[in-house]
């Protein structure tokens, strides 16, 4: 079908967003997961599309509708997410909101059985690739790379250290000690080269719109 040309400050730009948790299989019927609902990342993808951007949303397993105008790629594991991000390049900006599992499990080919008086199994964990750090150092790095930092204490300090370690341009410092994960509102601090901006607690949709406008402004220069 013919599409009307996109309008808005992000017309002509390709924006890449990751969102949601990843699931790391333990065996064919079990997995490791986390409490990310995908809401904040989906809202950001929708807000970027609403500004006229072409948006690719790489989504972990979540129960959310695809925002209008967004191309969605569903993945399950961190490694699948890494591959989908790579396949979606080039992009003008990337916003990595996903709560990527830090570790995967050495997966058993068959369902692990309780057995007769067998000891409880232990899970051997293997570190997953860091998608944000890899992208930040890639020769195909987007012009603007934005990370999220989920922290429960010393939020700004940890987030600033993360931004340096991972080599992203901005990091959205997110205090997840309360009801943020799975909740409707978010309070964040935006850490950029210019300093730290505190954004008061607001619905995730409002945080998304504010960030989308900031990204549009940054890509203009
Ligand atoms: N991230 C990623 N790939 C990973 C882990 C994290 O792309 N394997 C990204 C997240 O999407 C987020 C940022 O890195 O944008 C920070 O994630 P976070 O979990 O807060 O940081 P970690 O470096 O994993 O540190 P820790 O969980 O130990 O605090
Ligand atoms: Ca992590």
Automatic annotation (TrEMBL):
Name any Gene Ontology BP term: pantothenate catabolic process
User: Which cofactors are required for activity?
Assistant: Mg(2+); FMN
Q: Which UniProt keywords apply?
A: Decarboxylase, Flavoprotein, FMN, Ligase, Lyase, Magnesium, Metal-binding, Multifunctional enzyme
In its keyword annotation, does this UniProt entry include Ligase? yes
User: Where in the numbering of this chain does the DNA/pantothenate metabolism flavoprotein C-terminal domain appear?
Assistant: 10-217
Show the GO cellular component annotation of the record.
phosphopantothenoylcysteine decarboxylase complex
| Binding locations of CTP | 102, 111, 129-132, 148, 162, 166
GO molecular-function term, one example from the UniProt record: metal ion binding
KW Lyase (keyword) present: yes
Cofactor comment text: Binds 1 FMN per subunit.
Its Enzyme Commission number(s) read 4.1.1.36, 6.3.2.5
| Catalytic activities | N-[(R)-4-phosphopantothenoyl]-L-cysteine + H(+) = (R)-4'-phosphopantetheine + CO2; (R)-4'-phosphopantothenate + L-cysteine + CTP = N-[(R)-4-phosphopantothenoyl]-L-cysteine + CMP + diphosphate + H(+)
UniProt pathway:
Cofactor biosynthesis; coenzyme A biosynthesis; CoA from (R)-pantothenate: step 2/5; Cofactor biosynthesis; coenzyme A biosynthesis; CoA from (R)-pantothenate: step 3/5
Region Phosphopantothenate--cysteine ligase, residue ranges: 15-221
Family, according to the entry, reads as follows: In the C-terminal section; belongs to the PPC synthetase family.
Give the protein's biological function: Catalyzes two steps in the biosynthesis of coenzyme A. In the first step cysteine is conjugated to 4'-phosphopantothenate to form 4-phosphopantothenoylcysteine, in the latter compound is decarboxylated to form 4'-phosphopantotheine.
Specify the protein name.
Answer: Coenzyme A biosynthesis bifunctional protein CoaBC
What is the species listed in this Swiss-Prot or TrEMBL entry? Sphingomonas rubra
Section of the entire sequence shown: 179 to 399 of 399
């Amino acid at each position: 079908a013919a599409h009307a040309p996109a309008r808005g400050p992000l017309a002509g730009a390709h924006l890449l967003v990751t969102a949601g948790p990843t699931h790391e299989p333990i065996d064919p019927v079990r997995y490791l997961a986390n409490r990310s609902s995908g809401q904040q990342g989906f809202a950001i993808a929708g807000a970027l599309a609403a500004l006229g951007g072409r948006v690719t949303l790489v989504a972990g397993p979540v129960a959310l509708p695809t925002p209008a105008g967004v191309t969605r790629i569903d993945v399950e594991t961190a490694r699948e997410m890494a591959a989908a991000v790579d396949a979606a390049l080039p992009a003008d900006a990337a916003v990595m909101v996903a709560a990527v599992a830090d570790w995967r499990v050495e997966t058993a080919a068959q369902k692990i059985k309780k057995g007769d008086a067998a000891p409880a199994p232990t899970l051997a964990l293997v570190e997953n690739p860091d998608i944000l750090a890899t992208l930040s150092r890639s020769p195909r790095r987007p012009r603007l790379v934005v990370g999220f930092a989920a922290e429960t204490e010393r939020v700004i300090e940890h987030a600033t250290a993360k931004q340096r370690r991972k080599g992203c341009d901005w990091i959205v410092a997110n205090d997840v000690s309360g009801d943020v994960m799975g909740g409707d509102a978010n309070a964040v601090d935006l850490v950029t080269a210019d300093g730290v901006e505190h954004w008061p607690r607001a619905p995730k949709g409002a945080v998304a719109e504010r960030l989308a406008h900031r990204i549009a402004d940054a890509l203009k220069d």
